[in-house]
Design brief:
The protein has 644 residues and is of the alpha/beta class. 36% of the residues lie in helices and 15% in strands. This is GTPase Der.
Amino acid sequence: MFITSLPALSPRKRQGSLLFLLKVLARHSSSSFLSGNPTRSIHASNDGIPNRFRPGHRPSFGASDIHTREGRLTYLSTIGRSFCSSLSQDEYLKSGSGSIPDVAARVLDPSCLDAVAPIKVKVFHKRPIDFTKLDINFLPAVILVGRPNVGKSALFNRLIRRREALVYNTPDDHVTRDIREGIAKLGDLRFKVLDSAGLETEATSGSILQRTATMTANVLARTQFAVFLIDARAGLHPLDLEVGKWLRKNAPEIKPVVVLNKAELLFDGTESFSEAADEARILGFGDPIAISAETGFGMTALHEALRPSIEDYVLQVLNSDCEDKGPQQCGESSLEEVDDSKLPLQLAIVGRPNVGKSTLLNALLQEERVLVGPEAGLTRDSVRAQFEFQGRTIYLVDTAGWLHRTKDEKRPSSLSIMQSKKNLMRAHVIALVLDAEQMTHAEVVIARRAVEEGRGLVVVVNKMDLLKGKRAGSLYEKVMESVPMEIQTVIPQVTGIPVIFTSAIEGKGRIPVMRQVIETYEKWCSRLSTARLNRWLRKVMSRHSWRGEGSQPKIKYVTQVKARPPTFVAFTSGKKHQLSEAEIRFLTRSLKEDFGLDGIPIRIMERCVPKSNGGGQSSGSSGKNASSTRRVRMLGTDNKAVEA
């Protein structure tokens, strides 16, 4: 099928594909492609000259032609004549019309590739490339592989210039289990870098190590380059040899860059580095590079080793993209102002352990992106994934299970909890995943924390499939009625928090979850004009019964000062200079009801403006009066007033 699809490609792509095919077949002339019983003859007329050599002849091949030996050779001969001028009609007849192997040897002779007629290809981009201005989609992917505890996560953090991946010295344990992705910044070089779990090829079938190795193999098939890490202090380990064999088996087209990590002490005037390099050459991947991910030593050498290959790949991708789009649209970038609600959405999936957070992320992405299983606490690193939904870019973050951390605990699980809290504060919308069979105090803590941080909140009740059946039928209905009421009871500050019922393992509820997340995000980014707010304020003031209007503060006007979450300032004047808690709640409820802002936190700040005393007062005294009466009071979603 690959060969039959070649004519549909562009000339430049067809040339590259055919040359690669001819080179491969020249080296493996006895491969299975040329095997088979000769049941058909080459299409030719009675004079012995193949029809493909006649002027104006356009050969046509069906699927059945490719499945026979003669048909394959006929098609390859046609391809070879199109690009190799060394095979003429006389040479074909000299080899004998029935001598198919000789003809194939001539057609597939690598020397004929030198006679290929050059095809003029427009070059839109040339070296050097400014990687800092490239779109992320044009960057290649580089995966970090190696046995456990060789410093892959430390190098990942060094390349992305942030401490995103968990790093913990556990020789008998594996900290990294999922694939983490980030944008590497190595000098002026930019590329996608993937941190993988430690490989152990002899892992038990069905174990966590075996599942992580399978996931790494699937990701490796979609990457362009690889960095093979070795511990320079320990030397070449038998597991390193096994990883090398694993790489050749799963990615034979990738030649990894061998890196000796933790090599800061090898350059002490002795032959330590040369001995370690000789050991690394046994792997057969070329000369190694000495680095130290912890200290940054050797990053220049790594840059020099990666840049030529990455630059060649990017040039090929850019020129191909420009050839498809045309010179007018090549390299265009949008400079239009983008609305806040159209910016990429940061969605964090949080919850206590073993409620189905990773399963929900895989269901949303519709691929096995993160490791799932019955083991509690399986996820350690917060995994970030990007995907498109209804034309909108969404960044999903799968976090570790939220547990109460003890003071004495310093294992990787403790670091995972701290990382989950950081991702909660960075997100725009929080998807709180609950177990349909049980709701605990941990969910209440997470929900309150999300509201206090001013984030949009969507409650996802997972594992609803466990409540189906004759016995659980009444429980199913009870859960659907009770969960929204319990959420509203424990978080009275925010009314109308959306609740979605799903079964992630069955893939049900994916679309409703994403639609509700986007709706909540758009509310979270909403902005209201001052004129519209003041028209609303006049209606609200007429509905509200202000007790003792002489002593109650008067709201002069309201304006929105920021979004994400919506934050408003109420300018008041009066003897009391402050709104009561009941009045603040009334304004908040009215805003949500009249402008459709249910389900998101709203912040109202109060600013007291002093009355003007006319021109009789000196500027100094008026300034003193203003400083003593002007106060800012902000009411957060936790109903705590702060005065400044």
